[in-house]
Amino acid sequence: MTDAAPAPTIDRRMLEALVCPVTQATLAYDAEAQELISKPAKLAFPLRNGIPIMLVSEARELD
User: Fold this and answer.
1) 23 and 38 Cβ atoms separated by less than 8 Å
2) What is the three-class DSSP state of 60?
3) H-run or E-run covering 15
4) Residue-level pLDDT, tens digit, the chain, 63 residues
5) Quick check: helix, strand or coil at residue 6?
6) Three-state SS for 62?
7) I need a labelling partner for 38 at 20 to 30 A (CA). Which of 4, 20, 24, 25 fits?
8) What contacts 24+ positions apart, CB below 8 Å, involve 35-38?
9) pTM for the complete prediction?
């Protein structure tokens, strides 16, 4: 039986400093999906190994 490694967490201070590169709006952290969500832009930016990837080309569009 293998245990999955826990998902990395994001530093709250870093989250407060980051904004959406499209709208400059604040971001919401989705720990389960490991994404930063920009509701105004309808984009989800991935976290990889705890590092936010803030490139629009890497973001997932939200419905």
Assistant:
1) yes
2) strand
3) helix 12-17
4) 556 666 667 788 888 899 999 999 999 999 999 999 999 999 999 999 989 999 999 999 999
5) coil
6) coil
7) 4
8) 35/60, 36/10, 37/62
9) 0.83
